[in-house]
Design goal:
Elements (H helix, E strand, L loop, with lengths): L1 E14 L2 E6 L2 E7 L6 H13 L3 E2 L5 E3 L7 E6 L21 H17 L3 E4 L6 E16 L7
Parallel strand pairs: 3-6, 6-7
Antiparallel strand pairs: 1-2, 1-3, 1-8, 4-5
Helix pairs in contact: 1-2
Length: about 150
């Protein structure tokens, strides 16, 4: 799994002109899934995300987690995170998981974050989404579970 996490003042997602998910202070999570991912990666990444200390404390140091600040999460599926553009000018998406596996793990990731008590909103899997956000900082973190050596 690969994710781009952005600390936001607010974020929302629209499908067909209608807002389907919206948060104030929290994290916008763009989530990409590859064909090798399993529930192990879901659990590891959800735990890492909730504990990621990227919110400022009273001394303006990034020392607080999403849980600490009672922030929310907006989770957007994004297969293009597995786009490979090394050869040519048109990205290849062969490393992205097939939709059935990707959707299942995407939904499990959402469930896992909710199980920690994190208030979540989400996009619509496979839809043409318009995402609006106000990045706070800006703070943007990229996490790839392949780098974590999950067992």
């Amino acid at each position: 799994m690969r994710t781009v996490i952005q600390r936001v003042k607010y974020a929302k997602v629209n499908v067909d002109g209608k807002t389907i998910g919206e948060i104030d202070k929290g994290l916008l999570i763009l989530l990409g899934i590859t064909h090798e991912d399993t529930i192990k990666e879901v659990k590891w990444l959800a735990n890492k995300t909730k504990n990621l200390r990227i919110f400022e404390d009273e001394e303006e140091k990034m020392n607080l987690s999403l849980e600490d600040v009672k922030g929310k999460a907006l989770i957007i599926s994004q297969f293009t995170l597995y786009g490979n553009s090394i050869k040519g000018n048109r990205p290849s998406f062969i490393d992205a998981a097939k939709p059935d596996l990707a959707k299942d793990l995407y939904l499990k990731f959402i469930e896992e974050l909710k199980s920690f008590g994190i208030k979540t909103q989400e996009g619509e899997f496979g839809a043409d989404m318009k995402v609006e956000l106000l990045n706070d900082g800006p703070v943007t973190i990229i996490i790839d579970t392949k780098d974590a050596n999950i067992k």
